[in-house]
């Protein structure tokens, strides 16, 4: 089955190399996306540009792909389900939740020269990064790609309520399924509160399981196929 892999902020498609290799060994066809502005050198890319790239990948598949989003890119996976509900078989959301209509995509940290650079590890101390050793952190930081302002400050637009019919798997790394369910019940994740088919899976990792638990993550993604 086709599995589209969308990495979160500061990452390009290579973040999925180990996960993709395991998915291939399981008989699937993973496609790791390098988004406009996050690996292709397009510093002026916008959220619309990134969504267009995701939708082009969806349309390029012969069947109905599983669309996987990590962290902020959970919203991109959700936007794909909104734009192509008849084409997306399932969304897999890793370490994040879809933003609501009208909200900013990922305006989280300081902008410098028209982009949002990786802010260092201070904001991610604790469960987010507890499973990353110093070498992995240094490699991550050295390779981090500043996110264009037009992406980070882009406005999320959702228009088709058929997105709520698309099944979703929420993979919980630095938080638990019980916590995720509590947040959804409390109204903190209104999109998933309206979704009709939501499952949860736990993975014992920090925020970047594709780095520290790629085999386990691949097997969880495979369950969604």
TrEMBL record:
Residues 3-218 form the AB hydrolase-1 domain. InterPro entries: AB_hydrolase_1, AB_hydrolase_fold. SUPFAM superfamilies: alpha/beta-Hydrolases. Pfam families: Abhydrolase_6. One of its GO terms (molecular function) is catalytic activity. This is Pimeloyl-ACP methyl ester carboxylesterase. It comes from Labedaea rhizosphaerae.
